[in-house]
Amino acid sequence: MVEVKFVKSIVETKDKPKLSLPEIVLCGRSNVGKSSFINSFFNRKNLAKVSSTPGKTRLINYYSVNDKFYIVDLPGFGYARAPKTEQAKWEKMITNFLLNSRNVLFAFHFIDSRHKPTNLDVLLRDFLNEFNISTKIILTKTDKLKQSELAKAKKNAKEFLSGEFDDSNIFFYSAVKGTGKNEIKKFLSKTFGFKI
Ligand SMILES: Nc1nc2c(ncn2[C@@H]2O[C@H](COP(=O)(O)OP(=O)(O)OP(=O)(O)O)[C@@H](O)[C@H]2O)c(=O)[nH]1
Ligand SMILES: [Mg+2]
């Protein structure tokens, strides 16, 4: 059985949970569906706060899975009405987090499948590269796309990943329909050696 629980919210890495475990980081633009992913993936309605108003997740939220690894939900960035100071705060929080994270195993970079990766996605990708964090892309909200549009979204993601492209680095996901859940479960089960 998979047991997922909310552990704590932090702003600074000095406040990380005491128990040190491998971490999977969820990152991406605001409103792409990171928090919805947590709820739908673990079949838990209100584990993570979801909102149609971007910028819902302002803190770094830790969830533990079977006390074997953490899912870390990072605040989204780049929502339209965010003031510049807010953006600067985000960059500082994320770089500080990455600088002080010894336990990050990999990141899931979330991108709305309806949109091409933006310059903010490039910025995030470059941050992750700089810190040598291997990344998988999760293309979200696929329930809103037709098959042909999905193929285009995948092509854009491939271009975005360029050199590192390999089919296993891109997942399609729909929090509404549950698309992609099994592939990601399989991948995580293989990574951690227990059934998720
Ligand atoms: N149709 C559809 N809507 C989705 C999906 N995933 C998320 N949404 C909607 O997108 C909006 C934003 O979702 P969140 O999960 O709060 O996004 P987030 O990435 O956590 O946003 P921040 O906390 O601002 O970083 C909500 O209105 C969700 O209901 C999906 O797979 N399909
Ligand atoms: Mg969120």
Descriptive account of the structure:
- The chain is α/β, with parallel strands linked by helices and 196 residues long.
- It has a single domain, classed as Rossmann fold (3-Layer(aba) Sandwich).
- The protein is built from five helices and seven strands, in the order ββαββαβαβαβα.
- The chain has a seven-stranded mixed beta sheet, sandwiched between helices.
- β6, α4 and β7 form a beta-alpha-beta unit.
- The longest helix has 16 residues.
- The termini are close together.
- Bound molecules: guanosine-5'-triphosphate and magnesium ion.
- Magnesium ion binds next to α1.
- Guanosine-5'-triphosphate binds next to α1.
TL;DR?
With 196 residues, the chain is of the alpha/beta class.
Output the keywords:
single chain, 196 residues, alpha/beta, Rossmann fold, 7-stranded mixed sheet, 5 helices, 32% helix, 21% strand, globular, binds guanosine-5'-triphosphate, binds magnesium ion
